[in-house]
Amino acid sequence: MKIVNLGESNSVLNRFVSELRDVDIQKDSLRFRRNIERIGEIMAYEISKDFTYTRKDIQTPLGIAPMNTPDDRIVISTILRAGLPYHQGFLSYLDYAENAFVSAYRKYKDRLNFDIHIEYIASPRLTEKTLIITDPMLATGSSMELAYEALLTKGHPAHIHVASIIASKQAIEYLQRKMPDDKTTIWIAALDDELDDHSYIIPGLGDAGDLAYGEKE
Ligand SMILES: O=P(O)(O)OC[C@H]1O[C@H](OP(=O)(O)OP(=O)(O)O)[C@H](O)[C@@H]1O
Ligand SMILES: O=c1cc[nH]c(=O)[nH]1
Ligand SMILES: [Mg+2]
């Protein structure tokens, strides 16, 4: 399974991730959402380099321009809520893609233990398509695993790109065991060492859904 950490090379991407993490800057929820969206745009561009391209002759007003353009039938999917601005960033660049949405939330049994509940899925047929599953945070990796399983009820994609922003080492190891090795690529912008008792990423950024859209009851 290919794992790509785009944060390993210096680019403006790392400034956007730093702003997401910064305890003062992240209080500006408009900027927080826009930074997630901007990272989605950058990541869509990077992932697009892996698509299949063929040459097409494009008619301009003055002649024919040979252009390599992608042929993949792409479905961008996201996991509610924190995935919403990320999804929008991907869709800005991959505007011809189809779209899928899955809900996942942690239902706590007590202070430390929780199950993840999937209650909603809206997706086109996925068979033989290129599926991009977007979610800014991979903490335990369970939301991603369960969202992927739910999406499989809509058909088996030809290739899966898991696109996240901050992942824990534990989540990457977990998904390497749970996702199909020969057709999954995981893209991240930062890799953090550990989780706390509540399965939050340390240092991470806190609760991405709450920072983007406000606290839940
Ligand atoms: O890898 P995991 O341990 O499953 O955690 C990661 C999940 O947590 C966040 O969503 P959350 O459940 O907080 O929902 P929200 O976006 O509605 O806040 C995040 O967007 C992921 O979906
Ligand atoms: O660190 C974490 C873990 C789960 N969800 C988040 O938003 N952040
Ligand atoms: Mg949350």
TrEMBL record:
The membrane spanning regions, by residue number, are: none
- Phosphoribosyltransferase domain ranges (all copies): 11-214
SUPFAM superfamilies cross-referenced by the UniProt entry: PRTase-like (SSF53271)
* Assigned EC number: 2.4.2.9
Q: Which Gene3D superfamilies match?
A: 3.40.50.2020
Q: Which Pfam families match?
A: UPRTase (PF14681)
Domain of life assignment: Bacteria
Q: Name one GO molecular function term.
A: uracil phosphoribosyltransferase activity
Keyword set for this entry? Glycosyltransferase, Transferase
Q: Which InterPro entries match?
A: PRTase-like, PRTase_dom
The entry's protein name is: Uracil phosphoribosyltransferase
